[in-house]
Write a structure and sequence with these properties.
The chain is 45% helix and 17% strand. The chain starts with a strand and ends in a 5-residue tail after the last helix. It contains 16 helices and 14 strands. It folds into three domains: 2-21 and 233-363, 3-Layer(aba) Sandwich (Rossmann fold), CATH 3.40.50; 24-227, Nitrogenase molybdenum iron protein domain (Rossmann fold, 3-Layer(aba) Sandwich); 395-426, no CATH class. By secondary structure, the protein is of the alpha/beta class. Helix 3 (65-73) crosses helix 6 (167-176), helix 4 packs parallel to helix 5 (135-148) and helix 15 packs antiparallel against helix 16 (416-423). The strands form three sheets. The chain has a six-stranded parallel sheet, sandwiched between helices. The chain binds nicotinamide-adenine-dinucleotide. The site of nicotinamide-adenine-dinucleotide (NAD) has 31 residues, from helix 2, helix 7 and helix 8. Catalyzes the sequential NAD-dependent oxidations of L-histidinol to L-histidinaldehyde and then to L-histidine. Belongs to the histidinol dehydrogenase family. One of its GO terms (molecular function) is histidinol dehydrogenase activity.
Length: 428
Protein backbone atom coordinates (compact mmCIF):
# COMPACT_ATOMS: atom_id res chain seq x y z
CA UNK A 1 0.00 0.00 0.00
CA UNK A 2 1.38 3.39 -0.95
CA UNK A 3 1.47 5.81 1.99
CA UNK A 4 2.83 9.29 1.37
CA UNK A 5 2.10 12.94 0.66
CA UNK A 6 0.36 13.53 -2.69
CA UNK A 7 3.17 15.91 -3.65
CA UNK A 8 5.73 13.13 -3.05
CA UNK A 9 4.10 10.55 -5.35
CA UNK A 10 6.52 9.49 -8.08
CA UNK A 11 5.36 9.62 -11.72
CA UNK A 12 4.97 5.83 -11.83
CA UNK A 13 3.04 5.69 -8.52
CA UNK A 14 0.69 8.38 -9.70
CA UNK A 15 0.22 6.59 -13.07
CA UNK A 16 -0.44 3.29 -11.30
CA UNK A 17 -3.21 4.86 -9.20
CA UNK A 18 -4.81 6.92 -11.94
CA UNK A 19 -4.62 4.36 -14.76
CA UNK A 20 -6.15 1.39 -12.94
CA UNK A 21 -8.30 -0.89 -15.08
CA UNK A 22 -5.86 -0.72 -17.95
CA UNK A 23 -5.28 -4.47 -17.35
CA UNK A 24 -8.30 -4.95 -19.62
CA UNK A 25 -6.10 -5.20 -22.69
CA UNK A 26 -4.26 -8.18 -21.11
CA UNK A 27 -7.35 -10.35 -21.59
CA UNK A 28 -8.11 -9.07 -25.09
CA UNK A 29 -7.03 -12.07 -27.16
CA UNK A 30 -8.60 -14.62 -24.76
CA UNK A 31 -11.93 -12.75 -24.85
CA UNK A 32 -11.85 -12.27 -28.64
CA UNK A 33 -11.50 -16.05 -29.05
CA UNK A 34 -14.47 -16.68 -26.72
CA UNK A 35 -16.67 -14.15 -28.55
CA UNK A 36 -15.86 -15.72 -31.91
CA UNK A 37 -16.47 -19.25 -30.67
CA UNK A 38 -19.89 -18.36 -29.18
CA UNK A 39 -20.92 -16.49 -32.32
CA UNK A 40 -20.06 -19.59 -34.36
CA UNK A 41 -21.07 -22.45 -32.06
CA UNK A 42 -23.74 -20.93 -29.77
CA UNK A 43 -24.97 -23.03 -26.84
CA UNK A 44 -22.39 -25.77 -27.41
CA UNK A 45 -19.53 -23.32 -26.91
CA UNK A 46 -21.20 -21.83 -23.83
CA UNK A 47 -21.75 -25.25 -22.24
CA UNK A 48 -18.08 -26.11 -22.85
CA UNK A 49 -16.95 -22.85 -21.19
CA UNK A 50 -19.16 -23.61 -18.17
CA UNK A 51 -17.16 -26.80 -17.76
CA UNK A 52 -13.80 -25.14 -18.40
CA UNK A 53 -14.17 -22.00 -16.25
CA UNK A 54 -16.91 -22.81 -13.74
CA UNK A 55 -16.28 -26.57 -13.44
CA UNK A 56 -19.99 -27.10 -14.06
CA UNK A 57 -21.31 -29.98 -16.19
CA UNK A 58 -24.55 -28.67 -17.70
CA UNK A 59 -26.84 -30.09 -20.33
CA UNK A 60 -29.06 -27.01 -20.62
CA UNK A 61 -28.51 -23.34 -19.84
CA UNK A 62 -31.90 -22.03 -18.74
CA UNK A 63 -32.96 -22.18 -15.09
CA UNK A 64 -36.36 -23.92 -14.79
CA UNK A 65 -39.30 -22.50 -12.78
CA UNK A 66 -39.00 -25.56 -10.47
CA UNK A 67 -35.37 -24.69 -9.71
CA UNK A 68 -36.47 -21.17 -8.76
CA UNK A 69 -39.25 -22.41 -6.46
CA UNK A 70 -36.96 -25.01 -4.81
CA UNK A 71 -34.32 -22.34 -4.25
CA UNK A 72 -36.81 -19.99 -2.60
CA UNK A 73 -38.18 -22.78 -0.39
CA UNK A 74 -34.64 -23.55 0.82
CA UNK A 75 -34.02 -20.00 2.09
CA UNK A 76 -34.32 -18.70 5.61
CA UNK A 77 -37.43 -16.53 5.95
CA UNK A 78 -35.48 -13.68 7.55
CA UNK A 79 -33.05 -13.60 4.65
CA UNK A 80 -35.97 -13.41 2.23
CA UNK A 81 -37.53 -10.62 4.30
CA UNK A 82 -34.26 -8.64 4.06
CA UNK A 83 -34.05 -9.24 0.32
CA UNK A 84 -37.61 -7.89 -0.05
CA UNK A 85 -36.78 -4.87 2.14
CA UNK A 86 -33.77 -4.05 -0.08
CA UNK A 87 -35.88 -4.61 -3.23
CA UNK A 88 -38.59 -2.25 -2.03
CA UNK A 89 -36.09 0.57 -1.34
CA UNK A 90 -34.44 0.05 -4.73
CA UNK A 91 -37.83 -0.04 -6.47
CA UNK A 92 -38.97 3.24 -4.85
CA UNK A 93 -35.73 5.12 -5.58
CA UNK A 94 -35.74 4.02 -9.22
CA UNK A 95 -39.46 4.76 -9.68
CA UNK A 96 -38.72 8.30 -8.47
CA UNK A 97 -36.28 8.63 -11.41
CA UNK A 98 -38.93 7.92 -14.07
CA UNK A 99 -39.29 10.88 -16.44
CA UNK A 100 -42.61 12.16 -17.82
CA UNK A 101 -43.88 9.65 -20.40
CA UNK A 102 -44.76 12.40 -22.85
CA UNK A 103 -44.55 16.22 -22.91
CA UNK A 104 -45.23 19.05 -25.38
CA UNK A 105 -44.38 22.74 -25.78
CA UNK A 106 -45.85 25.29 -28.22
CA UNK A 107 -43.44 28.24 -28.21
CA UNK A 108 -44.26 29.23 -31.80
CA UNK A 109 -48.03 29.21 -32.50
CA UNK A 110 -48.84 26.27 -34.76
CA UNK A 111 -45.63 24.37 -33.96
CA UNK A 112 -46.26 21.80 -31.23
CA UNK A 113 -43.10 19.93 -30.19
CA UNK A 114 -42.92 16.98 -27.86
CA UNK A 115 -40.93 14.05 -26.63
CA UNK A 116 -42.15 10.56 -25.81
CA UNK A 117 -40.14 8.18 -23.65
CA UNK A 118 -40.60 4.42 -23.99
CA UNK A 119 -38.86 1.38 -22.48
CA UNK A 120 -36.41 -0.83 -24.36
CA UNK A 121 -37.96 -4.15 -25.42
CA UNK A 122 -35.38 -6.69 -24.28
CA UNK A 123 -32.53 -6.22 -21.81
CA UNK A 124 -29.84 -8.60 -20.55
CA UNK A 125 -28.49 -8.29 -17.01
CA UNK A 126 -25.07 -9.71 -16.17
CA UNK A 127 -24.90 -10.82 -12.55
CA UNK A 128 -21.38 -11.77 -11.45
CA UNK A 129 -20.78 -15.04 -9.67
CA UNK A 130 -17.11 -15.93 -9.73
CA UNK A 131 -15.44 -14.89 -6.48
CA UNK A 132 -18.70 -14.09 -4.69
CA UNK A 133 -22.43 -14.37 -5.35
CA UNK A 134 -24.28 -11.16 -6.18
CA UNK A 135 -28.05 -11.51 -5.59
CA UNK A 136 -27.91 -7.77 -4.84
CA UNK A 137 -26.83 -7.14 -8.45
CA UNK A 138 -30.02 -8.82 -9.68
CA UNK A 139 -32.00 -6.22 -7.73
CA UNK A 140 -29.78 -3.40 -9.05
CA UNK A 141 -30.19 -4.40 -12.73
CA UNK A 142 -33.38 -6.39 -13.36
CA UNK A 143 -35.53 -4.34 -10.96
CA UNK A 144 -34.83 -0.90 -12.51
CA UNK A 145 -35.37 -2.49 -15.94
CA UNK A 146 -38.82 -3.68 -14.86
CA UNK A 147 -39.56 -0.32 -13.17
CA UNK A 148 -38.79 1.30 -16.55
CA UNK A 149 -41.27 -1.09 -18.21
CA UNK A 150 -38.88 -3.36 -20.20
CA UNK A 151 -41.00 -6.25 -21.50
CA UNK A 152 -38.37 -8.98 -21.40
CA UNK A 153 -35.53 -8.99 -18.88
CA UNK A 154 -33.07 -11.86 -18.95
CA UNK A 155 -30.35 -12.60 -16.40
CA UNK A 156 -27.05 -14.43 -17.01
CA UNK A 157 -24.95 -15.56 -14.06
CA UNK A 158 -22.17 -18.16 -13.75
CA UNK A 159 -23.19 -21.59 -12.46
CA UNK A 160 -21.58 -23.01 -9.35
CA UNK A 161 -19.48 -26.17 -9.73
CA UNK A 162 -22.51 -28.35 -8.86
CA UNK A 163 -24.43 -26.80 -11.77
CA UNK A 164 -26.77 -24.70 -9.60
CA UNK A 165 -27.13 -20.94 -9.12
CA UNK A 166 -27.00 -19.46 -5.60
CA UNK A 167 -30.59 -19.76 -4.24
CA UNK A 168 -30.65 -16.11 -3.12
CA UNK A 169 -29.74 -15.01 -6.67
CA UNK A 170 -32.73 -16.98 -7.97
CA UNK A 171 -34.99 -15.52 -5.27
CA UNK A 172 -33.82 -12.03 -6.29
CA UNK A 173 -34.64 -12.86 -9.95
CA UNK A 174 -38.18 -13.79 -8.93
CA UNK A 175 -38.65 -10.68 -6.76
CA UNK A 176 -37.24 -8.42 -9.50
CA UNK A 177 -39.54 -9.99 -12.10
CA UNK A 178 -36.77 -11.35 -14.39
CA UNK A 179 -38.35 -13.30 -17.24
CA UNK A 180 -35.56 -15.82 -17.93
CA UNK A 181 -32.35 -16.83 -16.12
CA UNK A 182 -29.36 -18.53 -17.78
CA UNK A 183 -26.44 -20.33 -16.14
CA UNK A 184 -23.52 -18.73 -17.91
CA UNK A 185 -20.86 -16.23 -16.90
CA UNK A 186 -17.84 -14.37 -18.21
CA UNK A 187 -17.31 -13.27 -21.80
CA UNK A 188 -19.39 -16.20 -23.09
CA UNK A 189 -22.50 -14.86 -21.31
CA UNK A 190 -22.00 -11.43 -22.88
CA UNK A 191 -21.53 -13.04 -26.30
CA UNK A 192 -24.69 -15.13 -25.82
CA UNK A 193 -26.80 -12.06 -24.98
CA UNK A 194 -25.28 -9.97 -27.79
CA UNK A 195 -25.39 -12.48 -30.67
CA UNK A 196 -28.21 -14.71 -29.42
CA UNK A 197 -28.01 -18.53 -29.34
CA UNK A 198 -30.61 -21.30 -29.58
CA UNK A 199 -31.49 -20.83 -25.89
CA UNK A 200 -30.41 -17.25 -25.12
CA UNK A 201 -32.28 -14.46 -26.92
CA UNK A 202 -30.25 -11.55 -28.26
CA UNK A 203 -30.99 -8.34 -26.35
CA UNK A 204 -31.07 -4.61 -27.15
CA UNK A 205 -28.86 -3.68 -24.19
CA UNK A 206 -26.56 -5.45 -21.72
CA UNK A 207 -26.06 -4.04 -18.24
CA UNK A 208 -24.25 -5.14 -15.13
CA UNK A 209 -20.78 -5.38 -13.61
CA UNK A 210 -18.18 -8.11 -13.90
CA UNK A 211 -14.50 -8.94 -13.89
CA UNK A 212 -12.04 -7.97 -16.63
CA UNK A 213 -13.26 -10.71 -18.99
CA UNK A 214 -16.87 -9.51 -18.72
CA UNK A 215 -15.95 -5.84 -19.01
CA UNK A 216 -13.72 -6.31 -22.05
CA UNK A 217 -16.40 -8.46 -23.74
CA UNK A 218 -19.02 -5.74 -23.15
CA UNK A 219 -16.76 -3.18 -24.82
CA UNK A 220 -16.36 -5.46 -27.87
CA UNK A 221 -19.99 -6.36 -28.69
CA UNK A 222 -21.33 -2.84 -29.11
CA UNK A 223 -22.18 -3.38 -32.78
CA UNK A 224 -24.81 -5.90 -31.58
CA UNK A 225 -26.15 -4.47 -28.33
CA UNK A 226 -25.86 -1.21 -26.42
CA UNK A 227 -24.12 -1.47 -23.04
CA UNK A 228 -24.40 0.56 -19.85
CA UNK A 229 -20.68 1.36 -19.28
CA UNK A 230 -17.49 -0.38 -18.13
CA UNK A 231 -18.20 -1.55 -14.57
CA UNK A 232 -15.15 -3.50 -13.49
CA UNK A 233 -13.26 -4.08 -10.26
CA UNK A 234 -14.71 -1.93 -7.49
CA UNK A 235 -13.07 1.22 -6.12
CA UNK A 236 -13.51 3.64 -3.28
CA UNK A 237 -11.90 6.97 -2.58
CA UNK A 238 -12.44 8.37 0.90
CA UNK A 239 -11.99 12.07 1.64
CA UNK A 240 -11.70 12.37 5.41
CA UNK A 241 -10.41 14.66 8.13
CA UNK A 242 -10.07 14.24 11.90
CA UNK A 243 -13.83 14.00 12.17
CA UNK A 244 -13.59 10.47 10.66
CA UNK A 245 -13.31 7.40 12.84
CA UNK A 246 -10.14 5.39 11.95
CA UNK A 247 -11.80 2.03 12.71
CA UNK A 248 -14.74 2.78 10.40
CA UNK A 249 -12.46 4.22 7.71
CA UNK A 250 -10.22 1.12 7.72
CA UNK A 251 -13.30 -1.14 7.63
CA UNK A 252 -14.57 0.74 4.57
CA UNK A 253 -11.21 0.26 2.82
CA UNK A 254 -11.21 -3.48 3.54
CA UNK A 255 -14.86 -3.79 2.45
CA UNK A 256 -13.89 -2.53 -0.99
CA UNK A 257 -10.63 -4.51 -1.11
CA UNK A 258 -12.38 -7.85 -0.55
CA UNK A 259 -14.20 -7.57 -3.92
CA UNK A 260 -11.33 -8.34 -6.25
CA UNK A 261 -7.50 -8.45 -6.34
CA UNK A 262 -7.74 -5.55 -8.83
CA UNK A 263 -9.95 -3.42 -6.55
CA UNK A 264 -8.53 -0.07 -5.46
CA UNK A 265 -9.12 1.77 -2.16
CA UNK A 266 -7.73 5.23 -1.45
CA UNK A 267 -7.87 7.47 1.60
CA UNK A 268 -7.00 11.14 0.97
CA UNK A 269 -6.72 13.26 4.08
CA UNK A 270 -5.13 16.46 5.29
CA UNK A 271 -4.62 14.74 8.68
CA UNK A 272 -1.37 12.80 9.24
CA UNK A 273 -2.84 11.61 12.53
CA UNK A 274 -5.84 10.02 10.79
CA UNK A 275 -3.62 8.49 8.08
CA UNK A 276 -1.43 6.79 10.70
CA UNK A 277 -4.39 5.53 12.74
CA UNK A 278 -6.14 4.16 9.64
CA UNK A 279 -3.00 2.31 8.51
CA UNK A 280 -2.71 0.67 11.94
CA UNK A 281 -6.37 -0.33 11.83
CA UNK A 282 -6.04 -1.78 8.30
CA UNK A 283 -3.23 -3.99 9.51
CA UNK A 284 -5.17 -5.09 12.58
CA UNK A 285 -8.49 -5.72 10.82
CA UNK A 286 -7.03 -7.50 7.79
CA UNK A 287 -5.42 -10.10 10.13
CA UNK A 288 -8.81 -11.67 10.80
CA UNK A 289 -10.48 -10.93 7.44
CA UNK A 290 -12.00 -13.99 5.78
CA UNK A 291 -11.04 -12.94 2.25
CA UNK A 292 -7.49 -12.09 3.33
CA UNK A 293 -5.78 -13.22 0.13
CA UNK A 294 -7.93 -11.00 -2.12
CA UNK A 295 -7.61 -8.10 0.35
CA UNK A 296 -3.80 -8.35 0.45
CA UNK A 297 -3.60 -8.33 -3.35
CA UNK A 298 -6.00 -5.39 -3.61
CA UNK A 299 -4.19 -3.35 -0.95
CA UNK A 300 -1.10 -3.48 -3.19
CA UNK A 301 -3.01 -1.25 -5.66
CA UNK A 302 -4.27 1.01 -2.88
CA UNK A 303 -3.00 4.09 -1.04
CA UNK A 304 -3.24 6.37 1.97
CA UNK A 305 -2.40 9.86 0.72
CA UNK A 306 -1.72 12.96 2.77
CA UNK A 307 -2.80 16.29 1.32
CA UNK A 308 -1.79 19.84 2.22
CA UNK A 309 -5.42 20.79 2.75
CA UNK A 310 -9.02 19.82 1.87
CA UNK A 311 -8.76 21.50 -1.56
CA UNK A 312 -5.90 19.17 -2.51
CA UNK A 313 -8.06 16.18 -1.43
CA UNK A 314 -10.91 17.35 -3.67
CA UNK A 315 -8.60 18.01 -6.63
CA UNK A 316 -7.04 14.54 -6.34
CA UNK A 317 -10.48 12.91 -6.09
CA UNK A 318 -11.71 14.69 -9.22
CA UNK A 319 -8.57 13.60 -11.08
CA UNK A 320 -9.02 9.99 -9.93
CA UNK A 321 -12.80 9.87 -10.60
CA UNK A 322 -13.80 7.14 -8.14
CA UNK A 323 -16.67 4.72 -8.54
CA UNK A 324 -17.58 5.28 -4.87
CA UNK A 325 -16.69 8.50 -3.06
CA UNK A 326 -17.04 8.73 0.71
CA UNK A 327 -16.91 12.12 2.38
CA UNK A 328 -16.22 11.76 6.11
CA UNK A 329 -15.38 15.26 7.18
CA UNK A 330 -16.54 17.84 9.67
CA UNK A 331 -20.25 18.28 8.78
CA UNK A 332 -19.52 22.01 8.39
CA UNK A 333 -17.43 21.35 5.28
CA UNK A 334 -19.39 18.42 3.76
CA UNK A 335 -21.37 20.61 1.37
CA UNK A 336 -18.33 22.66 0.37
CA UNK A 337 -16.63 19.40 -0.62
CA UNK A 338 -19.74 17.99 -2.34
CA UNK A 339 -20.28 21.15 -4.37
CA UNK A 340 -16.84 20.79 -5.93
CA UNK A 341 -17.17 17.10 -6.88
CA UNK A 342 -16.99 16.73 -10.63
CA UNK A 343 -16.25 13.03 -11.13
CA UNK A 344 -17.83 10.32 -8.95
CA UNK A 345 -20.17 7.37 -9.48
CA UNK A 346 -22.01 7.55 -6.16
CA UNK A 347 -21.31 9.81 -3.18
CA UNK A 348 -21.70 8.70 0.44
CA UNK A 349 -21.73 11.47 3.04
CA UNK A 350 -21.05 11.18 6.77
CA UNK A 351 -19.72 8.54 9.12
CA UNK A 352 -22.91 6.51 8.87
CA UNK A 353 -23.11 6.29 5.07
CA UNK A 354 -20.67 3.46 4.28
CA UNK A 355 -20.59 2.05 0.74
CA UNK A 356 -22.19 -1.31 1.77
CA UNK A 357 -25.39 0.61 2.65
CA UNK A 358 -25.72 1.55 -1.02
CA UNK A 359 -24.37 -1.82 -2.17
CA UNK A 360 -27.39 -3.56 -0.71
CA UNK A 361 -30.30 -1.76 0.75
CA UNK A 362 -30.50 2.04 0.93
CA UNK A 363 -32.04 2.12 -2.55
CA UNK A 364 -29.37 3.73 -4.78
CA UNK A 365 -27.77 1.62 -7.50
CA UNK A 366 -24.45 -0.19 -6.99
CA UNK A 367 -23.70 -0.71 -10.67
CA UNK A 368 -21.32 2.17 -11.31
CA UNK A 369 -18.59 3.09 -13.81
CA UNK A 370 -15.05 2.22 -12.70
CA UNK A 371 -11.51 2.98 -13.94
CA UNK A 372 -12.19 6.72 -14.27
CA UNK A 373 -15.16 6.26 -16.65
CA UNK A 374 -17.27 8.41 -14.27
CA UNK A 375 -15.80 11.28 -16.28
CA UNK A 376 -18.33 10.51 -19.06
CA UNK A 377 -20.86 7.97 -17.71
CA UNK A 378 -23.52 8.05 -14.97
CA UNK A 379 -24.16 5.08 -12.70
CA UNK A 380 -26.98 2.69 -13.60
CA UNK A 381 -30.40 4.31 -13.29
CA UNK A 382 -33.89 4.00 -14.73
CA UNK A 383 -32.99 6.12 -17.78
CA UNK A 384 -30.58 3.39 -18.95
CA UNK A 385 -33.64 1.28 -19.80
CA UNK A 386 -35.52 3.97 -21.67
CA UNK A 387 -35.27 5.63 -25.06
CA UNK A 388 -37.16 8.56 -26.48
CA UNK A 389 -38.33 10.03 -29.75
CA UNK A 390 -39.39 13.55 -30.60
CA UNK A 391 -42.75 14.52 -32.06
CA UNK A 392 -43.90 17.56 -34.07
CA UNK A 393 -47.36 18.64 -35.21
CA UNK A 394 -47.19 21.73 -37.43
CA UNK A 395 -50.06 23.71 -38.90
CA UNK A 396 -49.79 25.79 -42.13
CA UNK A 397 -49.67 28.89 -39.94
CA UNK A 398 -46.83 27.37 -37.88
CA UNK A 399 -44.83 26.32 -40.97
CA UNK A 400 -45.15 29.79 -42.46
CA UNK A 401 -43.32 31.14 -39.38
CA UNK A 402 -40.17 29.14 -40.21
CA UNK A 403 -40.64 28.82 -43.99
CA UNK A 404 -38.09 31.45 -45.05
CA UNK A 405 -35.48 30.19 -42.60
CA UNK A 406 -35.76 26.58 -43.81
CA UNK A 407 -35.65 27.53 -47.52
CA UNK A 408 -32.68 29.84 -47.04
CA UNK A 409 -30.65 27.37 -44.97
CA UNK A 410 -31.49 24.38 -47.22
CA UNK A 411 -30.49 26.20 -50.43
CA UNK A 412 -27.26 27.42 -48.85
CA UNK A 413 -26.45 23.77 -48.01
CA UNK A 414 -27.21 22.83 -51.63
CA UNK A 415 -30.29 20.77 -50.70
CA UNK A 416 -32.75 22.28 -53.18
CA UNK A 417 -35.46 19.60 -52.86
CA UNK A 418 -35.60 20.36 -49.14
CA UNK A 419 -36.49 23.94 -50.02
CA UNK A 420 -39.03 22.73 -52.61
CA UNK A 421 -40.76 20.51 -50.03
CA UNK A 422 -41.53 23.71 -48.12
CA UNK A 423 -42.42 25.90 -51.15
CA UNK A 424 -44.83 23.28 -52.55
CA UNK A 425 -46.96 23.63 -49.43
CA UNK A 426 -47.54 27.30 -50.09
CA UNK A 427 -48.36 27.03 -53.81
CA UNK A 428 -52.04 27.49 -54.69
P1 LIG B 1 -17.66 -12.64 -12.77
O1 LIG B 1 -19.00 -13.27 -12.85
O2 LIG B 1 -17.50 -11.27 -13.30
O3 LIG B 1 -16.61 -13.56 -13.52
C1 LIG B 1 -16.63 -14.95 -13.43
C2 LIG B 1 -16.46 -15.52 -14.82
O4 LIG B 1 -15.22 -15.08 -15.37
C3 LIG B 1 -16.41 -17.02 -14.87
O5 LIG B 1 -17.70 -17.56 -14.99
C4 LIG B 1 -15.58 -17.27 -16.12
O6 LIG B 1 -16.43 -17.48 -17.21
C5 LIG B 1 -14.81 -15.99 -16.36
N1 LIG B 1 -13.38 -16.28 -16.22
C6 LIG B 1 -12.69 -16.47 -15.09
N2 LIG B 1 -11.40 -16.76 -15.38
C7 LIG B 1 -11.29 -16.75 -16.73
C8 LIG B 1 -10.21 -16.98 -17.65
N3 LIG B 1 -8.99 -17.25 -17.22
N4 LIG B 1 -10.47 -16.86 -18.98
C9 LIG B 1 -11.71 -16.55 -19.43
N5 LIG B 1 -12.77 -16.36 -18.59
C10 LIG B 1 -12.55 -16.44 -17.28
O7 LIG B 1 -17.26 -12.72 -11.21
P2 LIG B 1 -15.98 -12.21 -10.40
O8 LIG B 1 -14.73 -12.75 -11.00
O9 LIG B 1 -16.26 -12.52 -8.98
O10 LIG B 1 -15.94 -10.65 -10.60
C11 LIG B 1 -16.98 -9.79 -10.18
C12 LIG B 1 -16.47 -8.37 -10.36
O11 LIG B 1 -17.56 -7.47 -10.35
C13 LIG B 1 -15.50 -7.91 -9.28
O12 LIG B 1 -14.39 -7.32 -9.92
C14 LIG B 1 -16.30 -6.86 -8.52
O13 LIG B 1 -15.48 -5.86 -7.97
C15 LIG B 1 -17.13 -6.31 -9.64
N6 LIG B 1 -18.33 -5.58 -9.24
C16 LIG B 1 -18.43 -4.32 -9.76
C17 LIG B 1 -19.53 -3.56 -9.51
C18 LIG B 1 -19.62 -2.21 -10.17
O14 LIG B 1 -20.70 -1.64 -10.21
N7 LIG B 1 -18.57 -1.67 -10.72
C19 LIG B 1 -20.57 -4.07 -8.69
C20 LIG B 1 -20.45 -5.38 -8.18
C21 LIG B 1 -19.32 -6.14 -8.47
Amino acid sequence: MICKKITELSGSESDQLLSRGKGLTDVGSAVDAILENVQKNGDQAILAYAKQFDKAELSTLEVTPDEVEEAIASLDSNLLKHLRQAAENIRRFHAAQLPKEIWYIEDTPGIVLGQKTIPLERVGCYVPGGRASYPSTVLMTALPAKVAGVSEVIVCTPPRADGTVHPLTLAACKIAGADKVFKTGGAQAIAGMAYGTKSIPSVDKIVGPGNVFVTYAKMKIRDYAEIDFPAGPSEVLIIADDFANPKMTAADILAQAEHDPNSVSILVTPSEKLAKAVLEEIEKQSETAQRKEIIEASLKNSAVLIAENMQECIDFSNKFGPEHLQIMTDPEVEDTVLNQIQNAGSVFIGNYAPVPAGDYASGTNHVLPTSGYVRMYSGLNTAHFLKSFTIQRISKEGLSEIKDAVIDLAETEGLFEHAEAIRKRFEE
